[in-house]
Batch of 4 targets.
Target 1
Amino acid sequence: MSTFSEYAALARQLADQRRETDQDAAAEAGRRRALHTTLDQLTRRLAAQSHRLGQLGHAIGLPADPPPAAGGDRSGPTAPGSSAPGATVAAATSSGGTPGAGAVPDGGAAAAPGRPGVGAYPPGAPGGAVVALPTAAGVPAPRAGVADPAAELAEARRLADETDRLVQVSEAVARQPPLLPTWSPLARALAVYAGCAAAGVVLMLIMVVAADLAMVGLGALYAATCAGLPVLSFVAGYLVLGRWGRPALGSEQPPRFVPLGFVTCVLLVPLAYCGYLLLFRLVR
């Protein structure tokens, strides 16, 4: 009776251990499935990020990244004391002249020394001493410890979130024109046309001084003040808005406010000349 009781207790203990093992295996399988699902999501997310970054680089004129260079020869140097590839090793002979255990058959490889059935010595120095081979170029060193896959995936997800944020910031900056990016289109156009008209006023003052020195005739001065310089200022402002007023992203042409620019340049230069004449008469 005691034997049957011990058998029943051991059977229950074995069933409990098997149940716990099955539960642990199911939990481990679920964890692995969750890790694989997370890895697939991160892979698709990183692929989408790479595609979007490629589009942004193409939009702003950056060349694509060159493909990674093909790996070189990863074979390490020959260990000291070992024969070069393809070298013929002389067969060891016994005292009687018959081939020994280390004899090399015709066309075969050299047999390593050692007792049959035990195994050959490691390649290296004579006598079977193990020689540490140097690390080959391009072969990564072994990691110190096994990293936690969940922690690695969490870090990768954090970096992906940071990349998404930086991509959004880059897109917001790329959708703004390089010239006065925080200004409204109307204020930007007015500032550009006014600046070009101011440059035309400076040229007009230079021509006035040249006319006073009899270097430029009055007809040329009046023609430049009333027609030439205003039109030149307007064309310059129009070209500046077309070149530096367009954002890097987006194919639509920003508004240039042609009537506003034409009126600003046509009125500002002649009004500045009239103000110069009025000031000159008041001073005299």
Target 2
Amino acid sequence: MAARVVLHIGQQKSGTTYLQEVLGSCTDGLAAKAGILFPPSLREILPDAIENHERATYGLLGTEYPWVSAERAEGERRKWVRLAERVREWPGTVLLSAEALSVVRAPAVGRLADELRPAELDVVVTTRALGRTLPSLWQQHVRNGRALGAPQFFESLAEQRERGARAIEEERHLHLWRSFALGGLVRRWAGIAGRVTVVVNPGSPPDLLWRRFAEAVGAPCDLPPEDVLVRRTHAGLTLPETELLTYLNRAIEAAGWDVFEARALRERILAGNGARGPRAGVPEAAAELVRRWSDEDIDDLGRTGAVVLGDVEDLRFRPERDAHRAVSAAGMGEAAAAAIMAVADRARFEPERRRRPLYRRLRADRWS
């Protein structure tokens, strides 16, 4: 059985995908130099996939995740069984990374701990300022097919947070604040962990997050290739792109497209969209709310006694960095035009006269 298991549990949008990409690039070095096993998962099937262990935890915790059905959990069960075998077979430290674990409730935390004992359990939480993570979460939801505008998204977050800490801990559907209310997240996992370490992601330079994370898990900082350390795994949607997709998602739903057709359309648009524009941020109407949430969570984190790597002031809301104004009409127009061009089939719009054989011969003669 592993002597120690380190659980990296996110939060969402805190740089977890970047860290998983780095870890996947240096698994051999981790094992050889530090005795740390980062078990292969997705790359056994898809060589270019980002390594993580989220699907395996679906097989253990199932419908504890609000988005996982009983049928899907059963289908993922074998992944958990195989992962648990690797943990039992490895004599040193095993590192597991699954940001979705940040949303599960205390009984599920205990169930996971029971599966991994008698190994010593340490927990690493990566976090970033709410003023950066919440807008990023909004654009990700829209990218996945939801249609809430930014003001409505922040209104829904306020309604959920106003339910109070007890409801957040107990009610399954309030999972967003189980992850993003940092003090509560730390306390929930402190009950099973020998040590909880919070790693602050300031956003740049990218390799600083890796160096802090490596310190937290006891890994050499110099393992990954330099090109991986400076890589960004997600560009994210800009504000005009996200606003455009909210309208598109409503139209798709009204037209009755299925989830696969809708996803293919969005991916086609985003792949060919060259308009870009400013990034999504906190809307002006929600700025005071996010400032208050940020201050509350920083104070609450301080009361937990968790080890913090980085400066907690990087977590505080900063309007000049985190806020945005509504997208301009010109910005929306550019995004819409780029979206149309991305999906337009130019051949379909060729005038009828150009399709006639005589016209084609005359045109060829002209340039011969």
Target 3
Amino acid sequence: MIETYYTKEHGYNPFLIRKGWQVAQLNYTPEQDVKNIIRLDRHNLTDEVFILLRGDAVLVAAEVKDNGIEYYMEKLEPMVTYNIPSKVWHNIAMREDCEIIIVERANTHIDDFEHLDLELSEIQNFRKKVIACFQPETKITTNL
């Protein structure tokens, strides 16, 4: 009568998909390392909830403007619920051994995502700001 879910596998692992919603575990994967992130994502039909279980991660939201990208970054605290509303560009930078729970609309990982590839100068700026945000007590809002 009690279902239990946990995975040690790297990457995004949806494990509880029910009518209209799903829960997934995102464990560190090299693609989410700050030195490998090259794009932002957004979902048009769902908010996306992040809960840090352990490790270090920086959640990034972004607004694309005529004069560049404005970033909003926050280092996640364990057991705090963070929400990225639908249609907001975002990504998450993770350090090794990081584990995160994600709650969102069912099948978001299959059919509700857009990607925005960052240009080289944007990637360099993004990385610099994320690395700074990994420092304690830092929240960042900046323009390119």
Target 4
Amino acid sequence: MVRNVEQHYERVDFKGEEWKEAELVRCTFVRCRFVGASLAELSTTGCRFVECDFHGVPLNGSIHTESAFENCRFLEANLFVAKFAACKMTGSDFSKAQMDGLTVQQGDWSYTNLKMAKLTGQNLRGVRFVEADFTGAVLEKADLRKADLSRAQLAGAKLKGADVRGAVVDGVDFRTVDVRGVRMDALQAVSFVRSYGAKVD
């Protein structure tokens, strides 16, 4: 089994690498390309990936703890039953990624592209999603309590049965959101009516 500790890689192409069940600890990858690599059941702890390309990469069953994936591309990547615990995912693109069974524990997913993502029933409690793009995403029955959804794009997102109580919704344009069946608290209800131009005293 591959085990790398405190290694630094820059502009490396890992095509063809078999890192299934590999363990990476406090490693740094800058502008690296993983297209064509096998990363299923990979484990990362305290690693940092900057502007890396994971297009179509199998990351199913992988576990990431306190790692950072900044401005990375996960286009069509397989994240089935992957787990991200306290990770920083800012600016990353998850277009057409397979995200069924994904586990997200806390962490910062601000500025991520989650358009059309299927996150039905996901526990996203307390996750930071500032200015994340959920356009057309499926968030039915998702637990978004105490998440930070400041200025998040939710146009066309399916939220039936979702719980957003305690979440920060400043700047969310509720005019583009179908909120039927969504559990809200009083403060969010005020934000909702204000988005339609109402004045609340």
